[in-house]
Amino acid sequence: MLTFRRALLVAAVFITMLYLVTRTHAPSPMDQIPPQAESWPASNTEGHTTRTGYTPTTPVSTKGSDRMPQAKKPKTHGQQQLLQDMSRAPLKDKLAYQFPYDVETKFPAYIWQTWKYTPASGDFGENLRPAEASWSEKHPGFIHEVITDQVAVHLLRHLYVAVPEVLEAYQSLPLPVLKADFFRYLILLARGGIYSDIDTHALKSAAEWLPESVPREAIGLVIGIEADPDREDWADWYSRRIQFCQWTIQSKPGHPVLRDVVANITQETLKKKKEGSLKSFKGKNVIEFTGPALWTDTIFKFLNDDKYFDMSTGKGNITWEDFTGMTTAKKVGDVVVLPITSFSPGVQQMGAEDYDHPMAFVKHEFEGTWKPESERHIGAEVKEEGQ
Ligand SMILES: *[C@@H]1O[C@H](CO)[C@@H](O)[C@H](O)[C@H]1NC(C)=O
Ligand SMILES: *[C@@H]1O[C@H](CO)[C@@H](O)[C@H](O)[C@H]1NC(C)=O
């Protein structure tokens, strides 16, 4: 019985590998952030038409610090030498080399989810089937993968073979919820597409998330707002005044925000491991360590990073004030931020509209019946030992 299941698992892993592992990597311009920072639709006059303190930017690709200093021409060094050079490079540079970002590519037609079981399993959970099916129904032609923990290990081992510290960090994370958080960033960095928690329903196709007028070749990351608590005591309820959600993310592979968040979690994890504080890590700080607080901070850091954007002509930083109260999507550089209604409809607070609103794209099961943040991950947990 066990052997048979093992055999099935091996077969499943193999088949998954076959079509996930198709792209080869070539060094290419790292970051080609388009030089616009603007709100749209242009006709929107709901107070978000102008940016405060933020001006158009220049592409970063000519700046030295974010490029691969060691990615020398193979003709003089050969593959071996190149790999050696890379193994000594800073983590972010290695990641940029492995997963180059090209904003002009298409959004890959992947939908990634994680769960203890695949939908083919009788144990999958009947209550989750309509949600899972909604993603396939709304996205014909997409490759829709529900990745179990065992498959995740094999997949990551393949994708990150050249960045062993990332694998060490993943394997060292002491809680399934931390791995579930880390996995979504890792798979999007390496392959791109849509990640969405297993307890989310697709209300609309991702093809409709961005208005027709927005050129897809200028966008590399699409995010939504989880929380925009306009109240004095917001800190009692949320960890950031504006919190971006990470239960649904769309990206192109190699996006710098994903690279930054993966480097951050890797380094923080290995630091904690060295200090010996990882084993005693408790669930309370998940939000800061790998969850939406870290995600939100990483996005703001990116938007205010002079490596990527020309900040010299601006009047100040991008802050929560640029995104509070939004009712239409907003584009900053190559990032589109959707209003709270898009990924958090029906929460009946913070300005979110209901599920039937035209801007409602994804329904998150736990958001309908609002739960405190500490419980937010229950649906996303990936069990450690599947058997
Ligand atoms: C990771 O991000 C957090 C939040 O922004 C920051 O406090 C921390 O210093 C970062 N760690 C590393 C290693 O970059
Ligand atoms: C903008 O943010 C950077 C770091 O994110 C900080 O060093 C700088 O002081 C901020 N500038 C302003 C005007 O707040």
UniProtKB/TrEMBL annotation:
Signal peptide segment: 1-26
Region described as Disordered: 30-82
The entry's keywords: Glycosyltransferase, Golgi apparatus, Membrane, Signal, Signal-anchor, Transferase, Transmembrane, Transmembrane helix
UniProt protein name: Glycosyltransferase family 32 protein
An annotated GO BP: protein N-linked glycosylation
Annotated Gene3D superfamilies: 3.90.550.20
Entry GO MF terms: alpha-1,6-mannosyltransferase activity
Ranges annotated as biased composition (Low complexity): 45-62
Family, similarity comment: Belongs to the glycosyltransferase 32 family.
Topology within the bilayer: Single-pass type II membrane protein; Single-pass membrane protein
GO CC annotations, alphabetized: mannan polymerase complex
Keyword Transferase attached: yes
Pfam family, one: Gly_transf_sug
Location relative to the cell: Endomembrane system; Golgi apparatus membrane
